Amino acid sequence: MSDANFLGLIGNEGPAALDDPALIRVGHVVCDQIDKGFPKASMYRIEVDALVIAGPFTEYQATLVVTAAIGAYCPRFTKYLPDI
What phi, psi does 56 have (nearest 5°)? Predict the structure, then answer.
């Protein structure tokens, strides 16, 4: 998928403090971090928590961004997405 697809998945739900290029960078970093992390099954939650702690993401926004990043940039990890 493309950056446009990633941004489309987020829509207007991302943090207002971040512009599109910054959100795209975050999406790529999420996949890079998941790619490096073990065990994979817990990396989703770790990435969501990391975005909330780093700010300016709410829990909802972080969940949305991590899910969109996986769907758009690293779909090989979709099997690790929780059932929501």
Answer: -95, 35
Give Cβ neighbours of residue 73 (< 8 Å, ≥ 6 apart).
Answer: 1, 6, 27, 28, 30, 31
Tokens 């599109």 belong to 20
Q: Is the pTM of this model over 0.85?
A: yes
HEC secondary structure over 7-39: HHHHCCCCCCCCCHHHHHHHHHHHHHHHHHCCC
Could you tell me which of 65, 69, 73, 68 has the C-alpha nearest to residue 18? Answer: 65
Residue 9, phi-psi category: left (phi > 0), alpha (psi -120 to 50), beta (remainder): alpha
What's the rounded Cα separation, in Å, for the pair 9 and 79?
18
Percent of the chain with pLDDT over 70: 96
